[in-house]
Specification:
Length: about 230
């Protein structure tokens, strides 16, 4: 975990009301990603961000618990101590009041829907352009600014999730059990069977059985075919 840092004199333009000062917890295990996100927000007018940073889930949760009034958590889905949506689930369970926006390299509709269902306030694909990333984060902070004074605009959170075309496969997903869904999340996040075994504490053989059941339920012949359905 890096030392917390603040960045003053941030310039640019945002819609009213003035955003003021916000505390943002940035959680990602890549230094360049953290530097890039700070840079992306370097040109926003009337906004000062007090940055808190962590490179793993454990430190992020400890830091959040020690810091009052965190406006937004930007949480990477895949780090050394968490895979897929497990980190988001743990964070929300520990801190139900936290406003957590997921950052991820995947744009799978299933994963996005699961993140929203678990309580995330937004989903930021890492493939977003710098301008879209900036406007998305500013939008989340603007929403927080409004909510501090009045009720947040209806549907504001829903607008913070990218949309993808629906497919019939998603109907069959709804029929899977909780453990199957957990493992499907990890498969779609790019985890190997061994990584899933390590994350879920299930034996490798049990994980293989779950994956086979998922392939059969969704009527696909291979892991790569399964992943392609959600691209």
């Amino acid at each position: 975990m890096q030392d917390q840092r603040s960045h003053d004199h941030i310039m640019g333009s945002v819609p009213p009301p003035p955003l003021g000062t916000f505390k943002v917890l940035l959680v990602d295990d890549h230094d360049l990603v953290r530097v890039g996100l700070r840079t992306v927000l370097n040109e926003v007018e009337d906004m000062k961000i007090h940055w808190l940073e962590a490179d793993n889930l454990h430190d992020a949760m400890r830091l959040y618990g020690a810091e009052p009034d965190v406006s937004l958590v930007l949480l990477d889905l895949n780090m050394a101590d968490c895979k897929g949506l497990q980190g988001l689930r743990q964070f929300i369970e520990a801190y139900p009041q936290a406003r957590v926006a997921v950052m991820s390299g995947t744009q799978d509709e299933f994963v996005i829907g699961q993140a929203k269902g678990l309580g995330a306030v937004g989903y930021l694909p890492k493939a977003y352009s710098p301008s879209l990333t900036r406007s998305s984060i500013v939008g989340l902070l603007t929403e927080y600014s409004y909510a501090a004074a009045v009720a947040a605009p209806a549907g504001a959170s829903a607008a913070r999730f990218p949309r993808a075309p629906s497919a019939s496969s998603y109907d069959r997903v709804a029929e899977l059990g909780p453990r199957h869904l957990e493992i499907l999340e990890l498969v779609l996040s790019g985890c190997s069977n061994q990584e899933i075994s390590n994350s879920t504490k299930l034996s490798l053989g049990t994980v293989k059985n779950y994956v086979s059941t998922i392939l059969l339920a969704l009527d696909v012949k291979s892991r790569s075919h399964l992943i392609s359905l959600f691209r």
